[in-house]
Amino acid sequence: MKASKEPVRQPGIKDIADALGISIGTVDRALHARPGVNPTTCARVLRMADKLGYRPNVAARALKLNRHFRIEVQLPKEISSFFGPMREGIRHAAAGPLGASIEMHFAEYPRLDWGDIELLEAAIPKKYDGIVCSPSDAAKVGPLIDALQRQGTTVVCVGSDAPRSERLASIAIDGYVSGSLAAELLIHALPSASVVAAISGNLRILDHAEKLRGYAATLALLAPRISLLPVLESHDSPKEAYDQTKDLLKRHPEMQGLYVSTANSLPVLRAVREKSRARGMRIVTTDLFSELAPMIENGEIMATLYQRPFTQGRLAIQSLVHFLIEGVRPNPITRLTPHIVLRGNLPIFYEYVSTTASISR
Predict the structure, then answer these.
(1) What is the reported pTM?
(2) 90 within 8 A of 149, measured Cβ to Cβ
(3) Fold of 63-172+309-336
(4) Closest CA to 134 of 212, 198, 202, 181
(5) Where exactly are the structural domains of the chain?
(6) In angstroms, how far is the first alpha carbon of the chain from the final one?
(7) Do domains 63-172+309-336 and 175-306 have the same CATH topology?
(8) Which helix or strand (DSSP H or E) is residue 31 part of?
(9) Is 175-306 a domain of CATH 3.30.43.10?
(10) pLDDT in tens, 39-90
């Protein structure tokens, strides 16, 4: 009978101290950026911690300090195929041992650039410890984030960014890379002299603007003979997206490629179907959800760029909570690489998306 394997013990502060021949107190002060440790010793401690794979027990520290943190998550109701999984990632990260230290509030507004300003204004007198939000117009949102930060409410942006604000961190997909990938996919699938278009959300939102910048720049650099029609802004409204697509197809029957840079793709695809253009057009969409999968399988959609919303949500709340408890600042900007989903690897990604969508149900 084989002996059961003992669980691998995670390295702790004592292991770092023993490895360096210094006191546990010195290691603790260095890890938490407290005074009393010279810079050379602090650097040695951090290098050894990384070498040993030390990870702070954030939950235990919060319980020890007897601290409870009030956090509000402000996300739009639309588009649920993107922001729904993002909420699940946030809930999942805040569950378990950390749950005892967090009082989580979820607040919704109709859609991006419609209600987010009011929610941020309303949060100022509530004096939350932290807020996770998805900025729309950075010029309008930035001053509110600054006001929250100055009063002690730490803000983390997710899904987009307000780069000139005082926010703690931003977690999002790399929009420029996403748009560039969409352009490359269409370049390889279309004749050298083709006409393509793009349907975006509100271009005042940094994420949308970056996607279009990457898309246009890559087309111009790699395929100058491919013509890009003027970009359409649907403002993440299903009705606007449907109406604009119908009008686009009517005015440009020569169009052969289309990039939908938001998860608001279903009304666009419905308009394409109604015009009987689905089989004759190369379409790249954004994100992955149940309604999209059969269209990838039957070839209506050539590829989709998965933005990993669950991971974005998980990283956002982890960055915020670790800062509140440990006082250690995360990287101010984290940009995730989008995943290209084709018919061949669809089952792998769809299984993952289905699993993450049901984690907290």
Answers:
(1) 0.77
(2) no
(3) Rossmann fold (3.40.50)
(4) 202
(5) 13-52, 63-172+309-336, 175-306
(6) 39
(7) yes
(8) helix 24-31
(9) no
(10) 678 778 878 887 887 766 555 555 445 567 899 999 998 777 788 889 998 8
